[in-house]
Each structure stands twice: as C-alpha cells, then as structure tokens.
Amino acid sequence: MNGARGTSVVEALVGMVLAGIALAGLAATARVSTQALRLARDGANALAFASRQLEVLRLGPRTTGNDTVTAGDGTTFARTWRATDGRGAPSPLAADVAWGTHACTLDSAVWP
Description:
Elements: H1 2-59, E1 65-70, E2 76-83, E3 91-99, E4 102-110
Antiparallel strand pairs: 1-2, 2-3, 3-4
C-alpha cells in the first residue's frame, strides 16, 4: 500500500511540472503574438504617416523638414521628408518614419 501512495505523489508532481511547462509555452507564444501585432499596427501607422506626407509634398510646397506624430495609442513617430529639384525630370520625394528601433521609408517622384 505504501508504494502505491508514493507513486501517486510522484505522478502528481510530474503532472504539475508538465502543466507548468505547457503554461510557460503558452505565455511565451502569447507574448510573441502580442509583439507581432504591435509591430504590425505600428508599421501600418508609419506607412500611413509617410503616405500622408508624400501627398502633401506632391500637392506642394515641396520642402524638406521633420516633425513628430503621436498615434492614438501614444506611440511617437519621428517623421522626416525631403524633396529634391528634378531640373526638368521628375522631382524625387521621400518620407522616412521611425519609431523605437524600427523605421520605414517611402520614395516617390512628381513632375515639376
């Protein structure tokens, strides 16, 4: 009888360890998923901010500058744009948006 009781305690401990490992795996998966969703949301915001600035540059005046934009969730994006005179050819336009350790750049061109 004593051997049977000891075995059930060991089995319970092994089961608890396996359940803990499974929960740790689920928590890690949830963390990675949350980070990926945050990066996707911030990337979409950055592309939207860059696209808006390129539209402003296309309509004129074509200047060079920078500013900061804050998204609805509080993330701050640093935006830089530049327009170069094309001298009879299409004028290159660019908008860079950076946040945290990430950045994106959109390039375009417009006729004078």
